[in-house]
Each structure stands twice: as structure tokens, then as C-alpha cells.
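Protocol step 4 of 5: obtain the predicted structure for the target chain.
Materials: sequence only (see below). No template structures provided, no constraints applied. The aim of this step is simply to have a reference model before the mutagenesis design in step 5. Sequence pasted as it appears in the construct record:
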Amino acid sequence: MHTMHADGSVTLLSDGGVLFDAGAAAVAEGGWRALRPGQRVTVLRRGRVVVAVVHPV
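Step 4 output (C-alpha cells):
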């Protein structure tokens, strides 16, 4: 995780160095109360849209 925003959305940094956004609904879908910078997560996507940010597997 790169940055958590006040509205609950996050900006994620992939292992390849690409930044992308995930909405608050995607974060909530993963059951998170809060994420911290540097935390590793698994991202589930439908096409280019992030649908869930979950605990790493």
C-alpha cells in the first residue's frame, strides 16, 4: 500500500513500480479497518477495475 486517503480509498504501488487507485468499497471488501504504508496486499481486479484489496496469499 502506498497512500490511504481520507475517503477510505487507497493508492497502491505494484511490485513493478506502477501506482494505481482502489476505491473505498474495494478496501472494505477485503475486510480492512486500516492499511499502513508499505503493507503488502493482494489485489483482485475485474479488467482494469480493482474490486477487492485482500490479505496477501
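Step 4 remarks: Residues 6 and 21 are 14 Å apart (CA to CA). The two ends are 15 Å apart (CA to CA).
Proceed to step 5.
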